[in-house]
Prior knowledge:
Blueprint: H1 4-12, H2 25-30, H3 37-48, H4 60-69, E1 73-75, E2 85-88, E3 97-105, E4 108-116, E5 126-132, E6 137-141, H5 162-172, E7 180-183, E8 197-199, H6 205-214, H7 224-234, H8 244-255
Parallel strand pairs: 7-8
Antiparallel strand pairs: 1-6, 2-3, 2-6, 3-4, 4-5
Helix pairs in contact: 1-3
Amino acid sequence: MATASDVLRIARSQLGYTATSTSGKFCDWYGLKGYWCAMFVSWVAAQAGATAIIPRHSYTPTGAVWFKQRGRWHSGTRGLTPGDIVYFDFGLGRISHVGIFEGWNRGRVVTIDGNTGASGGRSGGRVLRRARAPRYVVGYGRPAYTTQPAASGIAVDGWAGAATIRRAQQLARTPIDGYISGQWKGNKKAHWAVVVMRYGRGGSTLVRRIQAAAGVSQDGHWGKATSRAMQRRLGVTQDGYFGNQSVKAWQRRLNAGKLI
């Protein structure tokens, strides 16, 4: 059975793909010419071995119905978890777009979408990461992902999502929820490849454990000083911006059973 990390890894591998709004490789795979946001989700599910838990569909409302029929539907955004299938309404009065939830960014819902564009619409012909206001979300389907980690460990894909953070929390012996909470929005650039940040007050217990291991002030907030200290321990460029290469090095370290 597929994991949420499997689905997100495959979706991310397609970022930047460009076609027209009604044609391209996802339409060819599905066997239909038309708006392909749902075909993209279906293709990702097929590549991840998740066709039993994510429906094959081209018409977005039918995907929502599929989840509802199986008791896997949730209205609104409360409880969203990376890997959930998010359905949007952009003013048509019905579900008209779908994407794969990756995380939150400044109170906006971040998804990886097929057939969108720079404006975040539903017919841009590209695979992009989009951040939208929660008011556009009708609801989401929760695929019945396996919770068992792969024998080879977490994916080394350069994006610190829920699986990466859960592994770090496990090693740090902190509560395990797949999120880094209590962070300051002004530090966003310092950890731009960590996609499961929750902004607010209080800092993070996991970040404090990381800071203790890295030998920096333990304030619980992941800023540039924390990124540089982690990069130093991981043997990568120490620029204070924890991007894809830094995350990959961290994921390898986590797979080796070490926090940093």
